[in-house]
Design a protein that fits this description.
The chain has four helices and four strands; from the N terminus they run ββαααββα. The protein is mostly helical. It has one domain. It binds zinc ion (2 copies). The site of one zinc ion has 8 residues, from α4.
């Protein structure tokens, strides 16, 4: 177990796995997610900005929920997520399935090869500024 800082309330907590939020915030998020889902049910064409204003939720948090797959987007939703690596449209996560497989193996390589002379060249990551 390791201590991590909750991304929401910034307190240190015992981190297990998954999103970096303390148990109190996770509990709180459950009701927030319900609110967002309710709102999207009534108004499916709502973007993150409107959601955050209407429900008074940090837009980054909303994006986190979507990326974590907690909130599903409809095909015509104005909320657009793109793969961090190749830029293709995705509905959850940070990268598309293809890139996820590639980055997963490159992270393992980078972790193991760090500090040693690694034969494989590092995979270049293109981070798009939104
Ligand atoms: Zn917290
Ligand atoms: Zn991709």
């Amino acid at each position: 177990m390791e201590l991590k800082k909750c991304r929401d309330c910034k307190t240190l907590f015992q981190y297990n796995s998954g999103p970096v939020y303390c148990s109190r915030c996770k509990l709180n998020h459950e009701s927030v997610i319900r609110d967002i889902k309710d709102y999207l049910y009534d108004y499916p064409n709502t973007d993150i900005k409107t959601l955050s204003e209407e429900l008074n939720i940090n837009p980054k948090l909303i994006e986190d929920f979507i990326r974590a797959g907690r909130i599903e987007l409809t095909a015509d939703s104005p909320i657009k997520l793109v793969c961090d690596v190749c830029g293709i449209r995705i509905t959850q996560g940070r990268v598309c399935d293809d890139c996820q497989q590639k980055t997963a193996s490159s992270i393992i390589e980078a972790g193991e090869g760090y500090g040693k002379d690694s034969k494989s060249s590092p995979v270049r990551m293109h981070r798009r500024q939104q």
